[in-house]
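Protein fold
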Amino acid sequence: MTTSTHPRSTAEPIRHVWVVGERRAARAAAASALAPRDLAVNCHRRLRGPFTGLGEVLRRLVPDAYSVAPALVESHRVAILCAAPELEPLIGSAPPTLTENAGPEERTRWYSPLRTRRFSHHLIEFLTAYAALRDDGALFLEFDTVEEADHTDAEFLAIALRRLDPGRVRLVVGTDADSTLIPELVTALDAYAVRVEGSGTDDSDGRESVVQARAQDQARAQARARAFVDSDCVSDVPGELEAYQDLEPATRARLHDERAEELERQDEFSLRLGAIPYHRLRGADPVRTAWPALVRAEMHCMDIGYYHAVLEYIEEMAGLLATAPPDHDLGGDHHVATRRGQILSLLGRPEDALAAYVRALSQTTGARQTMALHYNIGMLHTRFDRPERKDHTLAKAHLNTSIAMASQIADPGLRAFYTVFMSNGLALAELHLAQLASALELVDGGLAHLDRELQGHLHALHRSVLRHNRAQLLMALGRQDEALDDFDELVRLDPHYPEYYFDRGNARYQVGDVAGALADYEHTMTLSPPFPELFHNRGDLRAAGGDIDGAIADFSYVLELEPDWLESRIALSSLLLEIGAADAAAEVVAAGLALHPENPRLLCLLGETAIATGDTAAAHNALERALAADPALHQALAIRATLYFDEQRFDAAVADLDRALEIVGDDPDLLYNRGYVNEAAGQPADAVRDYTRALELPGADRDEILLRRELCLSEAS
């Protein structure tokens, strides 16, 4: 078992570290002064693209982890391989899904942009578990040049700074002094890291010395230039960049080509996502060598869900198209234009996506390309646009256009596929317009059309997408048995795709099959990195079944993953109040209000926690703030009514309960409460009316209500 060679001083501040300095060497020296690092990695995305830094950590640590704890590695295999694909020969491949098996021409499903967060969470847990295996139980990792990291590394570090215990896995994040970092990482550094200045840079060997060296020793200058290229042009050693810039263009291009060939011989896939396309773009013949390198990198990252990297590749490809000689038709204009819109949609930039699509449409005359653009614009309006801007009728206009164009394709197989594919988009718009029957007809018709026109093995992925959509529509239409049959078939066809088990678990829970739902949720956990919806839903299931401790654990874990997950915070604080842990509930609510200021539901819970701790003034304040934020929040009205009741302000209590009943309609609990207030206020006839109406409703506590009504009837007589 590998162990670190340095002692862990108890005098170390138990915080992560943010080292800021102009030069990498100075930052490294500042980090080393804290304690010897177990591992230091450069995160510059030019090296290996997505997860450049974390991937290198994994390449260094996983072989040791696999030798002593293979089960730990295997349980994190999917995330490990996505960040460090070179480890596949050592740890084996992950079981493929229909999505992974689909070729480029059959790929119709794209992963959520949140997938990279799931990987980060899983790999954070892997690092924590691995550190516990070491003799000293700790790791000290340095991630440098983070200002140039891909979004995946930056996102990982933002989450890791929050989740990792620095006493177990301590992080050093190194950046230059003028860093532009993603907001989440800035927030995490400010909250969880101590800032240290990395000083002592030496610029004495800069531009002036390079000029002098060139005059004295041309070979020395050339060596420095080559060293810069061999660093994949990320070196900040004084003099190397200047020596590189002084080279003749043809010499620079030759060095880039030589470096690209050297890297290709290493046969490490992640190099093809960073340094190799970078060098090919700057080589002697970028049109011939860089275009295929960029296409390969872009397609891989699109398939896996690394969308920020895809956008960068697309911009590089667009630049190459713009500069390609007239006799070099790369045939990528439509792909670049369409992919740019797709990525901008997935990254939550719908206005930019629409502009990209419209521009492409204005420059496109090909029927197939025009069809695809109308489809993408339709999906933007019904799926990807901001909620207040979605226009499902406009989406239908574009989707109907795409269907009409698909119906004109000469090849019968392609005509069938594209017609069905476009119709599936139209079904989504119909669903959003609450036209469930019409949506189901489109999906059913699409499946039948594919079965009729194409051999069964073709477009297996899209057939599963259609079946999945049909299952969800059938559930919405109340045809649960048929829906569950579809879900069963989906998990048979694609047994390693976690979302199908998760959705079947939701469907089973909806029909009351608690054991089946629990089994599906827990099987999903074996196939997928953690995601909040999964543990929240299991928490709901556990709470409904009386497993309060299990539910609390699940909701707490959701908040560890994503602290701004509001539904889990509300559920957790409610359960803590239910078991009498008012102080713990108050802490959960206070943390939520720091993230969601003036959220009415959290304020309502703040009022409940204040009541539980006997602070009625704070309770009134919180409930009034809740109702100011949402006057229709009936829970706050009902809780404030209890305060008024305890204060014997019966008229005010009845007024709040009257308003709550106006909002929700007849509710047995609210009617019982109003009856009880009327009874206490000496209004037995009004109490009897409330109790009598409550008895007519499902869910009423009949024994208690009958007793109270009998007492009121006796008093009235």
Observations:
- Residues 16-197 form a domain with the Rossmann fold fold (CATH 3.40.50).
- Residues 101 and 710 are 69 Å apart (CA to CA).
- The beta strands are 16-20, 39-42, 139-144, 169-175, 193-197.
- The first strand starts at residue 16 and ends at 20.
